Amino acid sequence: MNFNGITLEKLVLIAVIAGIIIGPEKLPGYAEKLAQMVRKGGEMLKGARSRMREEIGAEADDLDWRKLDPRQYDPRRIIRDALLDDSPPPRPSGQSAIVEPAKPAVPSVLGREFSRETPPPFDLEAT
Q1: Which residues fall in a compositionally biased region of kind Pro residues (predicted)?
Q2: Signed CA dihedral, 53, 56, 59, 61: sign only
Q3: What is the rounded distance in angstroms from the CA atom of residue 19 to the CA atom of residue 27?
Q4: How far apart are CA 83 and CA 113, in angstroms?
Q5: N or C: which end of the chain has fewer CB atoms below 10 A?
């Protein structure tokens, strides 16, 4: 079991050190406070889940939360996809038919053209 670099052995070591520092007299009181905090955190989590189900409905159970994790998005890929997107931008509402502008030039470097099949070179060491 590994929680962001903290293994079970490290947790046991921390608990032993905390037990030595706190002392046997105060340890039961602190253990009770910790149990109360864990229970309260569980109740808060259940309350948040129930509120979400009330607001979103039955669809909340079917959500794939991993798809909504912002850590999975690579900004470089998002920008590249947006630059290479072939669809025209949405037309503002209320405007009459607008003549579509000419397709913008494909980004190129030193005469090389890039597309979805041949993306531009990527430097891993660039900042």
Answers
A1: 118-127
A2: negative
A3: 7
A4: 13
A5: C
CA distances from 54 to 50, 57, 58 (A): 6, 5, 8
18, 30, 41 from 12: Cα distances, Å: 10, 16, 22
Residues of the chain with pLDDT under 70: 1-3, 87-111, 127
d(CA 87, CA 96): 19
How much is the pLDDT for 43?
95
Query: How many angstroms separate the Cα of 78 from the Cα of each of 82, 87, 110?
Result: 6, 15, 24
